[in-house]
Specification:
- The chain is an all-alpha fold and about 130 residues long.
- It folds into two domains: about 1-30; about 30-125, no CATH class.
- The chain is about 75% helix and about 0% strand.
- It has six helices and no strands.
- It has helices at about 1-25, 30-40, 45-70, 75-85, 95-105, 115-125.
- Helix 2 (about 30-40) packs across helix 6.
- The radius of gyration is 20 Å and the shape is globular.
- Mean pLDDT is about 80; it is low at about 1-25.
Amino acid sequence: MRRIITRIGLVVAILCAAHAARAQSAASIFSTQELYSNCMSADPSLVLVCEAYLIGVADVMAQNSVNLEILPIGYAQRLLFLIVAMCSPSYSGVQLRQIFINWAERNPAKWSQPQAAGAIASIAEVWPCR
């Protein structure tokens, strides 16, 4: 009987830990508004977080534009890459930050979206791939 109770307790503990981990990962998705707040912050470290995040998104989008040229992909896959691709020869964190700030201020209705959605939309608006 004691073994059964111990096993049940162990299963309950594992399920609680899994639920807490899932809730934490869902809560850790930052919104466009939070990214905007970091970009507008007077704290230089938060501005750096903003710029680093935007550079990472832009790097992935730039690689997607290269993939459009080098990968043998079909029409549907090409459309998917176009959605998250950007065509610019160069960019900086400062430049990306200002592009995002301008976009976010024009689109406050999208502030509740995940930060990736806002970052992608702002960059693609300036440097779309056609």
